[in-house]
Amino acid sequence: MKDWKTTPWKFILVNFVIGTVTAMIIYPAVDFIISLMRKTTFTYTVSDHVVSPLIFGICYGVINYFINGRKKDK
To answer: Rounded distance, CA 53 to CA 31, Å?
Structure first.
């Protein structure tokens, strides 16, 4: 059976999910802490706290494949 690291699309998909979930947890938490320090109100918006981590996850998955995944192919 093939390992998930040997097929490029599975490697990118796994890294996309890991990057997206991590960004969806960390980004709003950091934004909330910054709003507490600035004494402003924290507003959860879809474009900032959902779409931005999705874009980050896609970029993270592709970049991580080109950095780490292609080294294992050689």
So the answer is: 13
Tens-digit pLDDT string for the chain (74 aa): 466 566 778 878 888 888 889 988 999 999 999 999 999 999 998 888 889 888 988 888 888 888 876 655 55
Question: What is the number of alpha carbons within 13 Å of residue 17 lying toward its C-beta?
Answer: 5
- Is residue 38 within 8 Å of 20, Cβ to Cβ? no
For residue 57, with 0-12 CB atoms within 10 Å meaning exposed, 13-18 middle and 19 or more buried, which class applies? buried
Distances from the Cα of 17 to the Cα of 24, 33, 40, 42, 43, angstroms: 10, 25, 31, 26, 25
Hey, what amino acid is at 33? I
pTM of the model: 0.71
